[in-house]
Amino acid sequence: MNKKKMIRLTALVGVATATGVVAEANQAHAATTTTTETTNQTTNASVESTQAAVDAAQSTFDTAQTSVDSAQANVTSASNNVTSASAALSSAIANKEAATSKNIASATSAVSSQAVVVASASQAVSEQAGVVSAAASVQASAQAEATSASASLSSSSANVASALSAAEAALTSDQSTAANNLSAAESAASSASAAVSSDQAAVDNAQAAVASAQAIVDAVAEVQSSDVINMSVAYITALKNYLANPSSANAAALQEVAKGADYVKELQQKFKSDASLDVVVDPSDPTVQEALSVYAVNLINHLRNQYGLTTAFGASANANVAAIDFVKKYYDDEDWNIFGTTGSDGQGHNKNGLDAYADQLNTSIAEDAGSGLTTWVNGKATMATTTLHNLLYAVYSDIATMLFDDGGTNNWSHAQSIFEDGTILGTGGFNNVYLGVAFDKYGYAHYELYNATEGNQLGNNAYSLDVQTAAQALLTNAQASLASAKASLQRMTTNLMVAKAAVVAAQNQLAALENSSANDLVAVTKARTQLASAETSYQTALATYKQKEEALKKAGDNLAAAQASLEADQATLATAKAKLAELEETVANLTNADQLLAAAQAAYEQAVANLTTATGNLGAAQVDLAKAESQLALAEDTAEQAKVRAAIAAQVDQQLNGSTANDRQSAGQDATSLKTNGRALTATVATASAAKQKQGANQGRLPQTGNDDQEASAMALVGLGMLGLTTGLYGYKKKKITE
Question: Is the pTM of this model over 0.70?
Fold first, then answer.
């Protein structure tokens, strides 16, 4: 706080005033002792009253000082706000001056360029994430093999210890023990043989899967390039006319050009049938899902390109997962048969389910559906064999049917969903469409069209629209399964060899026991055989363990390197995004320069007005503080005078209590005379001495309370004390008040 010094004039108490206090006290005391006590009580009450006034004035002063401090803080804050607003206004003016069309165009171009950089960095992160995932898979596999090798090594070590123990107890072994060993060895050999047979079957199946996958890779690219749907110019024109104006005339013209179901059959016959695609697959397998959605999106985008649209549909793992989840929840779990058994007795689209799922994902969803794996024969539905050929044909046939055989009550809604741009069937919010494909338990195909946003992430984990990549992934997975099966077979084969060796050893041991007459030699031979076998197994397990540990270390190093690259790519992406945000902010500032300048000008003017108000409030508070200071000074002066009066009254009463009645009367009369004449205070002392001389004449009649010198000295002290109090009041100055 600021320190303030308060100097004020002190009221001077004159000799006459002090003398009057003495005279009044002496007169009261000369009357009766009770009157003297009443006078003291009165003066004391005056002191308490004036002190209360001082406390109240001090409280008022403190409150005023607090108001001044608060007002000063408000002025400081308002001043700072003016400074800040002035700087913001200067910045806005500079921004307005820089907001030329050339600068705006330049900044906008920079944003576009940086967006390309961000997209490239995002793609790099996505690709590196795949590398990290693959490295993590390899590392996990290596860890599992290392753990298995460690367990085998521990088991072999235990076998060595067991063999050593058996050697120590070899002399106590008998034919029964040998027979039990042989039985256990034969059982182990049988189990190992069964395991080898099982793993061999797994290897055979994996090899067949690899062969099928290789065939798919060889054929699917050709299928993708050849399986396209080409629309005639007349059809495109008629469809555009209808979508622009869905009148009955335009609908009839479109139906005429489309040629109905006959043209659909003609297109379906163009589907390339390849025997290499006749491999049984699971429609819900992620790799198959990828191939189907990429295939469907490529067909649709080829059609949209012919139609003259530049925006393309996309395909992603997230969209496929959402499609599978939706179909399971709202069709399979609810037993909702969209077409029924004849095609005319179905329940249609589950609209409530579509609304609920759209709310769940917070996006727009459109659904197309087709016969899928079901072919219509004599009005009844039959389930086709689920092969890759059937799946691809189902997608091809469904999309062809949506284009050319969609009249009647559907009013060409399927075609609209394929060719509309930004809206689907009159519903907005479809400016970034990703397609998910799923098959329900009845075999019908569902094509879910999602509007992907950053919030719902349905566009994440996007697929390359090169179907060859999807097919190659199928082959890679099959090859990985084959490698795993071969590794398992190798382990089981090694175990079988060890088990067979144990059988031979047990058989030899039993034969030696049966043919030898020296039981001790047989027992020693048995122990040696077991020890040799155990040592062999241990050495084999040790070599395998070292090999797997080395493989695990290499896999860990590869994973660490891949993760480091991913982190570097992520850092690059973060930097690029930050730069993009900065450039976008620059464009926004330049574009909105007028609004920003107006806002800054208004903020500056308001800050100046606030400062003016705060300054006025401070002046008013300072006036109140000055008034409070004056009131406090007056209250303190009054209190000091009350204390002086009380002290003088107390001292006079004390002296008079020790004198005779005649002395008190004489002293009171002299004090009254002094009060009247206004003499100097020393005259009071002289009058008291004269009274003492009168007392001497009556000493024979009154008790002695002290010698003459003592009483004269006492009266002199009273006078000197009052003189000292008066002198002190003349020199009084108010001390500093620190806040």
Answer: no
